[in-house]
Amino acid sequence: MATDPEFLADPDELAVWLGKPADDLRLLAALRAATRRFRGAVGHPVTLVEDDEQVLDGGGRRALLLPVWPTTAVTMVKLDGTELVEDTDYSWSDTGVLRRLGCTWPDRLRCVEVTYSHGWAEVPEDIQEAVIDQARSMHTVVPGLQSKTVGAQSVTFGAQAAIGVTSQWSAAVARHKVRTSGDA
To answer: What is the pTM of this model?
Structure first.
């Protein structure tokens, strides 16, 4: 399923859960807010970004982790301003590993410049589910409200509604967040 880049999940799917039309303004606002919240929590857009330029610390190891995966292309790597050659000086993987061939990266700050493409052409299902779940909660629950009584009907909202996130959300954020050199 290709989603609108504005959203990390399909408005039609959220509409089914909420029993509203997919063009309902409140539904779309909840989905937009959940998408922004997820992107903020992971620290990147999630969707495909081409030719992103990053400056990394060397770390003194054979491998560096690029901040965002999946990596779809590495178009340029410079070490201290000198361009390196793929498969001679370095190699890379779709998991975002940038490996130095024949030696290690220097143990210096800001010595590696990388231009690479990363992200998802199609949003992974775990992200879609977490965003849909968050949007449902945002659409349904008044922030801070734990229970509501109208006439003879009473509704009590679950703990995740009061806290703001579910374990599903936390797992998806942990899996897709920007990685730092300490994650290597």
So the answer is: 0.81
183 lies in some domain = no
Our measurement of the distance from residue 16's CA atom to the centroid of its chain's CA atoms, rounded to an integer in Å, reads 24
- Residue tagged 């509409």 (tokens): 15
- Nearest-Å Rg of the Cα atoms of the chain is 21
Block residue for tokens 């290709």 = 2
Q: Which of 118, 136, 156 is the last residue of a domain?
A: 118
The whole-number average pLDDT for the span 75-95 is 98
Q: Is 5 part of any domain?
A: no
CA dist 136 to 18, 27, 34, 96, 122, Å? 7, 8, 9, 33, 21
Question: pLDDT tens digits, residue range 106-119?
Answer: 999 999 999 999 99
The residue segments making up the domain with residue 72 are: 49-118
* 90 and 63 in a common domain: yes
Identify whether 18 is part of a domain: yes
